[in-house]
Write a structure and sequence with these properties.
single chain, about 110 residues, alpha+beta, Ribosomal Protein L22, Chain A, 3-stranded antiparallel beta sheet, about 40% helix, about 30% strand, globular, binds coenzyme A
Length: about 110
């Protein structure tokens, strides 16, 4: 079993996502759609950035890029990690965010 964790400042990501190049390089179209549909979009973008870093830390594989790792939410709201469009059943993630910070934990079984 492998674990990864990351914490990010929401205001840092909120600034970065205003840059279209950053947005397109880091997030999947599905993630962008999800985040912009929310009232506090910056928090949702931030927690997804933290998730990408946490999943990357768990895998520790330099060939995986930010955009290869995505988050999709089940109808219940529970998030699932997606790698290159394929849902991997062996990755568990848990996310939390406030107006200041977003944190993600990933466990690869
Ligand atoms: C869903 C819930 C857990 C979210 O918690 P919150 O404190 O409001 O918000 P957080 O910032 O900590 O977490 C938000 C993230 O939780 C995740 N989440 C949402 N629904 C979830 C679910 N059913 N299961 C797991 N994770 C969930 C999402 O990833 C969400 O972020 P996203 O929308 O950007 O993907 C909360 O609203 C809830 O329903 N709690 C019920 C708790 C309860 O019944 N407690 C009694 C026993 S202790």
């Amino acid at each position: 079993m492998k674990v990864g964790i990351d914490i990010v400042e929401v205001k840092r990501i909120d600034k970065l996502v205003k840059n279209k190049r950053f947005l397109e390089r880091v997030y999947t179209p599905q993630e962008v759609k999800y985040c912009i549909s929310k009232k506090n979009a910056g928090q949702h973008f931030a927690v997804r950035f933290a998730t990408k870093e946490a999943v990357w830390k768990a895998f520790n594989d330099k060939s995986i890029t930010h955009k290869d790792i995505g988050v999709m939410n089940l109808p219940s709201g529970k998030p699932q990690a997606v790698i290159k469009g394929k849902r991997k059943k062996n990755i568990d993630i848990s996310l939390s965010h406030t107006s200041d910070y977003a944190v993600a934990v990933a466990v690869v079984k």
